[in-house]
Write a structure and sequence with these properties.
The protein has 316 residues and is of the alpha+beta class. Helices cover 32% and strands 26% of the residues. A 4-stranded mixed sheet has the order 1-2-4-3. Strand 1 (2-17) and strand 2 form a beta hairpin. Helix 1 (60-77) crosses helix 3 and helix 4 runs antiparallel to helix 5 (212-225). The radius of gyration is 19 Å and the shape is globular.
Length: 316
């Protein structure tokens, strides 16, 4: 068995400098504890590692991940790699920018490793995921905020222990149409690095200081900058709702069709602000989808509060 979380788009995405001063594409995702993708892998000894049957059909990235993981796990355990049967359950629809394909792939790699009795470190899972997908999100690395090079499968920077406590009101953009992530512009423009390095430094400081307002400012600027890559015609409306409800900012899936209104989760009138955001989004013709919070800085990674259960139903 293997499982993996999804996420709710990004707080920051752009071009950054790695340790060698080379411009690379990177992102910081907004973690979301559920729904989970669960994977079961049953090896079929005597078959080649690329003979993978998947249920439901059409999960080609997960199939590639299973084959790559089988080869790596066989090498680690001294066994012969084999194909097998892969079953995936849960998760979210693809193409919305919620990390659904990486969740499928990560759960698959973990399930294959479990079947082989192998222990794959997160860095190995990340490399295998990128090999299977072409670009991956850092869901395999847990909920600590990291700047992740999504096309190289490596961490550019660990930003701190945990994000400030944020509440998020999520919504759909672009009528919830799927986006071809790999079809978006992937050209690295080194002249962009100065802007994103400034935002990187600001986000690093916000995490260290536990400052939700600064996280919201960084995330909002990143969302605005992303308009030249994947324009969201609803962005102005979402920003207007955020201002009206005294939110700290907004965030978007930079390669998908979800967005969120961000709140400081520690304010005493949080429930009223969330209610106002849900109503405001609806009045603007937007579809609220879920309300969730980031992990508590004081109670560990898995402390989450989810409200509006009716909004958290499966996205369609």
């Amino acid at each position: 068995m293997g499982q993996a979380t999804c996420h709710h788009g990004e707080l920051l995405q752009g071009v950054f400098l790695d340790g060698d001063g080379r411009p690379v594409r990177g992102l910081v995702t907004l973690p979301m504890a559920d729904p989970l993708t669960r994977a079961e892998f049953t090896p079929r000894p005597g078959t080649g590692p690329h003979r993978i049957a998947v249920d439901p059909p059409g999960r080609d990235k997960a199939v590639r991940a299973a084959a790559l993981a089988a080869i790596e796990c066989a090498r680690a355990t001294g066994r012969y790699p084999s194909g097998g049967d892969l079953r995936l359950t849960g998760g979210l629809p693809a193409g919305l920018g919620l990390g659904s394909s990486t969740s499928d792939v990560t759960a698959t790699i973990r399930a294959v490793a479990d079947a082989y009795g192998a222990l794959l470190p997160p860095a190995s899972v990340a490399r295998t995921a990128v090999a299977a997908e072409g670009a991956s999100d850092p869901v395999m690395l847990g909920e600590r905020p990291v700047l992740f090079a999504q096309r190289e499968g490596r961490v550019l920077e660990e930003l701190g222990a945990a994000l400030p406590e944020l509440a998020v009101v999520g919504c759909l953009t672009g009528h919830g149409r799927p986006v071809d992530t790999m079809g978006l512009p992937g050209t690295v423009r080194s002249r962009d690095a100065a802007v994103y390095e400034r935002l990187r430094a600001a986000l690093r400081a916000a995490v260290a200081d536990g400052d939700p307002a600064e996280v919201g400012r960084v995330s909002t600027e990143s969302a605005i900058l992303n308009q030249r890559v994947l324009p969201k015609e609803e962005l102005g409306k979402i920003r207007g709702v955020a201002r009206h409800c005294a939110a700290v900012g907004i965030q978007v899936a930079h390669s998908g069709n979800v967005a969120g209104v961000l709140f400081d989760a520690t304010v005493p009138d949080l429930s009223a602000r969330i209610d106002a955001a849900v109503s405001g989004l609806r009045s603007e013709g937007l579809v609220p989808t879920r309300v969730f919070s980031t992990p508590s800085r004081t109670h560990g990674e898995r402390t989450w509060t989810t409200t509006y259960a009716t909004l958290s139903a499966d996205l369609t």
